[in-house]
Amino acid sequence: MSGRYALDSGCVVKVPRALGACSANKTCNIIRSRLPLASSTYFHTATVFSSQPSSITVTKEPDALFQRVSLLVKGHDKSVLDSYELFATMAAKELGIAISKVCELPKDTERFTLLKSVHIFKNHRVQYEMRTHYRFIELSHLTGSTAQVYLEYVQRNLPEGVAMEVTKTAMEKVPDHILKPMWEEDPIDNKLSQG
Amino acid sequence: MAASLSSTASARLLSSLRSGSLSRGLHVTAARCKNRAARVRVGKGDRPLTYEEALPPHHIAHRKGWLSQHTGNLRGEEGTAERTVEDVFVRRFIFGTFHGCLANELVIKRRGNVLVVCALMLQKLQPQKFYFLIGYSETMLSHLYKCPVKLEVQTLQDKAVYKYL
């Protein structure tokens, strides 16, 4: 996505939009136009999303570990999902995240048949359908902070008309009281109960 | 000719025998129920059409794109009707505010909370008036829908004609 600016000479220059994963969304309209000397003038307005960088917090508690973070991306347009998959996998590779699976689930079609006319004519109907295409991206073995950064970046750049569902599988340490079986810990109690 | 006369004669006989049970009226056939949605009928060849108007709706996703992009119509997502109603209102509002200046249909996109309206305009007004109307419509719509509304405008000299029908 780029902002377009019309310069005085009449040529149009493409400028890449700043992609920042950040908190407050500040937006500004950038307008350039020639002075109205002639009767016809042309201009473009473009929108640039700019935001301040978020503050980095340092805590002493241990980071959450995720065994799997799976993204299911849904959309109507398959080409949009293709480019988004390329974007997400490239971002994951740059951040050093292990991608375990990238696959395309079969599409879902929702069809319904309605009467074509407002009144009578039952034999003439219209059929509509809505297709939902899917992409499934699975990342494995992430820390909580990595997952947070990656998801924020990827979600801020989600294209319009595309929805995403994220499932995180967290790993937790096995609690101490079930690490060892009970019969190994207290053999005397068992003997007493038997006798 | 003779066949038709005899058939009508026989029909009259039948109707006189069984009063009212045999209807002689002809119900409308498929010719009247052709699809007319979003299609421009072929004419003399003097009517200019844009690409959007010239292609019928069964070409959406094949040769056409979507004019309104939101997640309401996806499987498992909510808010279809609300987005549609908002879209209709926004189209009418912009059509009325920039009366006679729109070159093509609006493209409405929703990214997160933001409503982005992309419009192609003709250069009928002074740029200052355009700026005022853009700011006015953005403020009004953002107050109505309680979300940031952006209007992305590109201007042309004339409508981009794809076909003459």
UniProtKB/TrEMBL annotation, chain A:
Source taxon at top rank: Eukaryota
Alphabetical list of Pfam families matching this protein: Ribosomal_S10
An example Gene Ontology CC term for this record: mitochondrial small ribosomal subunit
Molecular-function GO terms, alphabetical: structural constituent of ribosome
Residues annotated as domain Small ribosomal subunit protein uS10: 70-167
The keyword Plastid appears for this protein: no
Name of the protein in its database record: Small ribosomal subunit protein uS10m
Swiss-Prot/TrEMBL GO biological process terms: translation
Presence of keyword Amino-acid biosynthesis: no
Keywords (A to Z) from UniProt: Mitochondrion, Ribonucleoprotein, Ribosomal protein
SMART domains, alphabetized: Ribosomal_S10 (SM01403)
Protein's cellular compartments: Mitochondrion
Family to which this protein belongs: Belongs to the universal ribosomal protein uS10 family.
Leader peptide range in chain numbering: none
SUPFAM superfamilies assigned to the protein according to its UniProt record, in alphabetical order: Ribosomal protein S10
From TrEMBL, chain B:
GO biological process, one term: translation
One term under GO cellular component: ribonucleoprotein complex
Source superkingdom: Eukaryota
Keywords: Mitochondrion, Ribonucleoprotein, Ribosomal protein, Transit peptide
A Pfam family it matches: MRP-S24
Segments traversing the membrane: none
Subcellular location: Mitochondrion
Keyword Transit peptide recorded: yes
Family statement drawn from the similarity comment of this UniProt entry: Belongs to the universal ribosomal protein uS3 family.
Designated name of the protein: Mitochondrial ribosomal protein S24
Organism: Gasterosteus aculeatus aculeatus (three-spined stickleback)
Lineage, top ranks: Eukaryota, Metazoa, Chordata, Craniata, Vertebrata
